[in-house]
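Thread: Newbie trying to understand structure tokens

Hi all, I'm a second-year student working on a class project, and my supervisor (Dr. K.) asked me to get a predicted structure for one chain before our next meeting. I've only ever worked with sequences, so writing a 3D structure as a token string is new to me. If someone could post the tokens and maybe explain what I'm looking at, I'd be very grateful. Here's the chain:
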Amino acid sequence: MKKLLFLSLLTFLWSNKTYSQENIKYDISVAGISIGELNAKKNTKDKNTVYELTSLVSFWFFGNISVNFEIISHYKDNLLVKSRTTTKSNRGDFFSKIDWINEQYEISATSYKYELDTALANPFYFSSSKLYFEEPILHAVFMAENYGLSSPIKKKGDYYEVDVNGNKNKFYYLNGKLEKAIMQSPIKNYVIKRKSN
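---
Reply by user tm_fold:
Sure, no problem. This is what the structure looks like when written as tokens:
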């Protein structure tokens, strides 16, 4: 009986070591006014990690605009192997997908006034969704899942700048954790700020 209890305890501890979950909430604002929330999730099991970003915003831009946005990115052994980005809005719906197949990425991306169908041979170990969980200290480029583009990461003073399809976004970290991001957008610039627990 003691042996069975000991084995059960070992199995429980081992399974907990191979699985972890992290959930962070961010406020999204324009000119200091909250327009929505972003929820960032990270689930790790063994050598597989899934990052999920979901947001719902509503704001005024020559009429009311509501946007429901989601990125789900899968990593295996730290390599980006699959990503899906879905945008649903009252001004149109968009979808992007990235798949690592036969040592290259098959990319099909649509966004606001943007389309891309291509293949890219370079492997990626960092992407937009990881920016919400890790400071990109060791990375000079990343994959912007929404656009399917390879984009540079530059350290500038107290923030990192990433240029995605002409939009220059700034990411600020504290003790390795993202505190704030200032985002450029073809529709409206906005700020993402970590919520206090």
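A couple of things are worth pointing out once you decode it. The mean pLDDT is 89. The helical segments are 2-17. Feel free to ask follow-ups in this thread.
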